[in-house]
Amino acid sequence: MRSHYCGQLNETLVDQTVTVCGWVHRRRDHGGVIFLDMRDRDGIAQFVVDPDTVDAFANADRARGEYVLRITGNVRLRPDGTQNPDMPTGMIEVLAKDVEVLNTAATPPFQLDDHGKVGEEVRLKHRYVDLRRPDMIQKLRLRSRISHNVRAFLEQEGFLDIETPVLTRATPEGARDYLVPSRTHPGEFFALPQSPQLFKQLLMVAGFDRYYQIAKCFRDEDLRADRQPEFTQIDIEASFIEEDDIMGVTETMIRQLFGEVLDVALPEFPRMTWHDAMQRFGSDKPDLRIPLELTDVDDLMKDVNFKVFSGPANADDGRVAALKVSGGASLSRKAIDEYTRFVGIYGAKGLAWIKVNERAKGIEGLQSPIVKFMDNIIEDLLDRVDAKDGDIIFFGADKANIVNEAIGALRVRLGADLELYTHDWAPLWVVDFPMFETDGSGRLSPLHHPFTAPACTPEELKADPANALSRAYDMVLNGTELGGGSIRIHDQAMQSTVLEILGIGAEEAQEKFGFLLDALQYGAPPHGGLAFGLDRLVMLMTGATTIREVIAFPKTQSAACLMTNAPSDVTAEQLKDLNIRLRQKAKVEETVE
Ligand code: ASP
């Protein structure tokens, strides 16, 4: 139907006849001459329709915004003074000979170039209109390039693309499962995969050696943060490898991707232990673009006459950390109040601070509600953080996890608010994660998943599980976890030990992962892998501000699709087929009767 996309038209086509198909982006009537800006996925170009092409003019005259047209005409240079160098097609226009209306369009629910004024709900409800915006097309095109590039790289490295089931058993990745009732097995359910974890391990047992898949994963998580109930992973697994092999190949993949798609040469990927990351940045995914670090001051605060500090400084699970911000003494009271409210979100009960106005004057040169308690240690404290005139020092004092979360988040917020970034891209690997974390009741749960290999023997693990390290690794970029994985347990005895430590008895283990435990007996090779979050990767590479911008048909924060109205009711017939009676509905029906 067409010879070119609108966005392909340029000076090289002058005097040629072209045919395009697309949507009316804008229509202007200039005293007898009609200008149509036509849009398709490649861009926008200007068409001119003269009244002497009678039929074409009549059609252009009745065309409205978002009508679908097919136009044939001659490319010509725009007259001097009317060129638009900001537009890729801005040097030319097309004098239309033929205008055909392929379809009409109702008035769109919002103007494409005015989308900022409409709520996201309206845009999601009419996503097919929203997706016409060049900005959205741009992001999804880049997404397509990214997945193509990743596939090409992995194929070239000998990884095989193998699909794993979507209707399956639960995979423990720490979230709630989406369940699908089985009609043929009344009362039984499939779970949608939280990841292909167990299947990719089984593919290694089968001998495929190198696997990848761009896989949909499903996690019914609480609706905080910028998450989606279904999201996409670049899932990778390989056999006969160690940490350095898999980290090496995937680092090359990401480096090549950034080079080819964004023309960005990523710097070195330093390796940092989980422990150092938590101590220095309060986070297991530190944003290394921000030159601020947490400094431990517990030892200095043990004897101060200020319970808020001395309490955590003396407690086993407490931490007192300082965060110095060079030049931060100019922060207003209002800004500090806002940061105090902000750290409260993470459980901090307050935010102590010291402004260093004139260090040479000793305590007189400081401004702070707490400095009066710190007479004896103030000089040591200022030395410890290397305080200079004009600095502000913030403090977190609480349970270590609260301090890390709150001051870690404050660090990131200050980095953004005060524009402290020292460079554009800061990748790193975080390694040496603990094997387990404890909840309040002292119960252990896996930091990654229960198939992650520990860096010690089963005996050592049993003797001191709380302090055992795992063979896990995360790739972090600009404070976002791009991907994570581990060397896996390939030995049945070790796998049983880990499950036992997690309080999963032999019977339960057999019932939940019997197939994996069985497979480990049949010649499982040493193996490991990782998975990258494709959506987050695309988000970083496109500069999008929410994950919804890089997914064609995303769900809302409450895990619903506004366009299709999913999830939705089903008929009584369908429920009967599935052998399901709804408690909630039954109640509603009863009250209606
Ligand atoms: N399955 C893990 C996840 O989804 C990634 C991995 O360990 O390969 O987080």
Key descriptive features of the protein:
GAD-like_sf; Gyrase A, domain 2; cytoplasm; 31% helix; globular; 593 residues; binds aspartic acid; eight-stranded mixed sheet; alpha+beta; OB fold (Dihydrolipoamide Acetyltransferase, E2P); disordered C terminus
How would you explain this protein's 3D organization?
With 593 residues, the protein is of the alpha+beta class. Among the domains are: 6-103, Nucleic acid-binding proteins (OB fold (Dihydrolipoamide Acetyltransferase, E2P), Beta Barrel), CATH 2.40.50.140; 290-422, Gyrase A, domain 2 (2-Layer Sandwich), CATH 3.30.1360.30. 31% of the residues lie in helices and 23% in strands. It has an eight-stranded mixed sheet, with helices on both faces. A hairpin with a 7-residue loop joins β7 and β8 (189-191). α10 packs across α12 (400-417). The two termini are 59 Å apart. The chain binds aspartic acid (ASP). The site of aspartic acid has 9 residues, from β21 and β22. It is found in: Cytoplasm. It is an enzyme of class 6 (ligase). Its main location: cytoplasm. Its EC number is 6.1.1.23. It catalyses: tRNA(Asx) + L-aspartate + ATP = L-aspartyl-tRNA(Asx) + AMP + diphosphate.
